[in-house]
Design a protein that fits this description.
329 residues, alpha/beta, Rossmann fold, 2 domains, seven-stranded mixed sheet, six-stranded mixed sheet, 15 strands, transferase activity, Acyl transferase, transferase
Length: 329
């Protein structure tokens, strides 16, 4: 626990040059203290002591979170986050040792992209996440609402008419109004909106969840702007299995926080990393996953740019429809 706390203390002051050093420290620690990850490395024949760079680290397939408790060390979880899913689908489970650590990390990341959230009013249109329960996204938005100084905002489920009215009123008094929304619900919202919501920032954080026909981001963003006026449309990349989030602002390209790095793997050889600009499977290093596993092989397709930003290009065939941001580019 003492070593884990030292990792936590290094996160808020982490700079780019220190990322690999901390990532390797966490890797070696998790390789010895995370039973599932340790067994996975053993079956691969990997000696963790021989790993001296992050591009040599084997990433844990994200499916392991469906069938195992992914824990580094021995502790009792304060919270268990569950992924979204359709009826009968096995949902991923991320055990969280310290909920406040998750909340503080999410706040630190959001503030680094958008400024002090205390000056913002948060609205949420996330019906499926609310209805299924135990959502990391809901826990994050709950905390943002609590940290905001505004007494307005809140969740609206399917009550888009009231949401539109309340947004119009709030935009008259504040220039920092944020709406978190899942794709299909945002489309319903657009269809019910008859007047512009100029100045609103929308952060879309999921796809159509099988409830609407999928569309490209360009199509989706154009439709929203045609219906809603001079709104800013951003996107969040996060998932149950990660404690950190990436954000895109207007250009579809996601930027990572200091706690996160994206690597691209060859989908036919998951242990080979690809160069910048090449499309492949997304591997995520999330240093905030100190208590679980910081090295996750996702089922998303993407590519990385020279500045570390990345694009989401879709999903790998036969993977579940899941997580935040299923819209294809």
């Amino acid at each position: 626990m003492k070593l884990i706390n030292s990792f936590k203390q290094r996160l808020p002051t982490l700079e780019a040059l220190g990322f690999e050093s901390l990532a390797l420290d966490i890797f070696h620690f998790q390789a010895q203290n995370n039973q599932i990850y340790m067994e996975y490395l053993s079956r691969l024949g990997v000696d963790h002591l021989r790993i001296d760079s992050i591009d040599k680290i084997p990433f844990l397939p994200i499916e392991f979170f469906k069938y195992h408790d992914i824990k580094t060390g021995e502790w009792l979880e304060e919270k268990a986050f569950l992924s979204s899913g359709t009826t009968g689908m096995q949902r991923s489970k991320h055990l969280v040792e310290d909920l406040h650590f998750y909340e503080q990390n999410a706040k630190m990341i959001f503030d680094s992209f958008y400024g002090d959230m205390g000056n913002m009013t948060f609205f949420a249109l996330l019906p499926s996440y609310q209805q299924q329960g135990n959502s990391s996204l809901i826990a994050m938005v709950d905390y943002f609402m609590k940290e905001s100084k505004s007494e307005r905002g809140g969740y609206y489920l399917d009550n888009t008419g009231q949401l539109i009215e309340d947004l119009q009123n709030e935009l008259k008094h504040s220039h920092d109004v944020v709406l978190f929304g899942v794709g299909y619900a945002l489309l319903d919202f657009c269809e019910g909106c008859r007047s512009p919501l100029d100045g609103l920032t929308i952060i879309e954080t999921g796809g159509m969840k099988g409830r609407r026909e999928e569309m490209t981001k360009d199509e989706f963003y154009t439709l929203m702007k045609n219906k809603l006026g001079a709104v800013s449309i951003h996107s969040e990349y996060g998932m149950t299995e990660l404690l950190s989030q990436a954000y895109s602002q207007e250009n579809h390209r996601f930027s990572t926080p200091s706690t996160m790095k994206i690597l691209i793997r060859d989908i036919n050889d998951p242990f080979t990393m690809l160069d910048e600009g090449k499309a492949g499977g997304i591997n995520v290093i999330d240093l905030a996953n100190i208590h679980s596993c910081s090295f996750i092989e996702t089922k998303d397709l993407g590519s990385v740019h020279s500045d570390g930003s990345f694009d989401i290009l879709g999903r790998i065939d036969n993977s579940d429809i899941r997580g935040c941001n299923l819209l294809v580019v």
